């Protein structure tokens, strides 16, 4: 009897120890107060060539958007496509891109072999003007005049190439057969226009574009008017374009209005960014617009009217969407 009792007591002791172990103190693997995703302390931002508006505007804006919790590292890149691919590869956590190119990426078309959906939008910030800059000596005054000429069509990996392709096609010109094309950044294109190695260059950027402003001080250049027929066909085929009239406000060497089109420069971020950080960046972007405008002329063109509505099929980051809803900008 005593032996049986000893066995029972021994078993009860084992169960009690197991229960205490299961219910006792143990290391905490989760902090209920911690955010879902960590703050990205240094946000690497892809822009464009260092003589372009992307680089200048983003540098000015990010200096104002820096906080005690995170800062921005602005990097010169090959442009919109390279920026989106850089976010996909983890090289950047934020970028400024053309709204047409980001839609190509999301759908996996026009230079993107497959869909890239690792990014989302913070918001459209200012119009980017599709400019055809030609030397006055070339005699080019229309898109049709580009046929057979030496033309820079944008840096490799940039959205300029697709703008050039679409604009030329609207005028019945094949980019691969009807012009002598060359790939060049804004700065390189300006240099080539100056030395006469090309006749014209496509540039899609906010105006005034520094590379062109500088070029015009040394070389006589003109901005080519696209013409109503080309603009109408282009906008019918690609609804993300908007008509834009260039004047002396864009460049002081323009003496008569020049009809062209524009797309929207847009900030995008990695989907890995926390909702809170994306919310704060979006909030600061618009609440500090006056400071950004004082630092860079493009800040004056920022408007919340189309910030969240001109992004096409690319979704807003949930943090950005929260800001726009709270601010009553979207329903």
| Basic shape | globular
Stretches with pLDDT under 50, minimum 5 residues: 1-36
Oligomer, anyone? single chain
Compute the number of structural domains: 2
CATH fold assignment of the largest domain: D-Maltodextrin-Binding Protein, domain 2
Strand residue percentage: 15-25%
Major β-sheet annotation: 10 strands, mixed
Name the CATH superfamily assignment of the largest domain.
Answer: Periplasmic binding protein-like II
Give a structural overview:
The chain has 331 residues and is of the alpha/beta class. The chain has two domains: 146 residues, Periplasmic binding protein-like II (D-Maltodextrin-Binding Protein, domain 2, 3-Layer(aba) Sandwich); 135 residues, 3-Layer(aba) Sandwich (D-Maltodextrin-Binding Protein, domain 2). Helix content is 37%, strand content 20%. It has eleven helices and ten strands. Strands 1, 2, 3, 4, 5, 6, 7, 8, 9 and 10 form a ten-stranded mixed sheet that branches. Helix 9 packs across helix 11. 46% of the residues are buried. The N terminus is likely disordered.
């Amino acid at each position: 009897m005593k032996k049986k009792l000893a066995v029972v007591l021994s078993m009860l002791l084992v169960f009690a120890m197991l229960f205490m172990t299961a219910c006792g103190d143990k290391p905490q693997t989760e902090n209920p107060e911690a955010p879902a995703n960590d703050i990205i302390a240094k946000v690497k931002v892809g822009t464009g060539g260092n003589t372009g508006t992307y680089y200048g505007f983003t540098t000015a804006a990010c200096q104002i958007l820096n906080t005690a919790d995170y800062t921005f590292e602005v990097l010169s890149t090959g442009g919109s496509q390279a920026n989106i691919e850089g976010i996909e590869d983890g090289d950047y956590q934020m970028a400024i891109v053309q709204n047409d190119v980001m839609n190509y990426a999301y759908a996996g078309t026009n230079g993107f072999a497959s869909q890239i959906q690792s990014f989302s939008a913070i918001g459209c910030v200012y119009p980017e003007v599709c400019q055809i800059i030609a030397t006055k000596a070339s005699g080019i005054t229309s898109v049709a005049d580009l046929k057979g000429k030496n033309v820079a069509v944008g840096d490799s990996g940039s959205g300029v190439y697709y703008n050039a392709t679409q604009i030329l096609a609207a005028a019945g010109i094949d980019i691969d057969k009807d012009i002598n094309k060359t790939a060049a950044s804004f700065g390189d294109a300006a240099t080539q226009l100056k030395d006469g190695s090309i006749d014209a260059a496509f540039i899609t950027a906010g105006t005034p574009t520094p590379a062109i402003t500088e070029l015009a001080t040394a070389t006589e250049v003109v901005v080519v008017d696209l013409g109503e027929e080309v603009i109408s066909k282009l906008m019918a085929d690609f609804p993300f374009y908007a008509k834009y009239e260039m004047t002396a406000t864009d460049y002081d060497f323009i003496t008569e209005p020049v009809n062209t089109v524009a797309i929207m420069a847009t900030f995008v971020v990695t989907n890995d960014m926390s909702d809170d950080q994306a919310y704060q960046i979006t909030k600061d972007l618009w609440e500090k617009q006056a400071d950004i405008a004082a630092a860079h002329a493009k800040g004056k063109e920022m408007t919340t009217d189309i910030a969240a509505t001109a992004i096409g099929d690319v979704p807003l980051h949930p943090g950005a969407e929260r800001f726009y809803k709270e601010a009553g900008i979207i329903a």
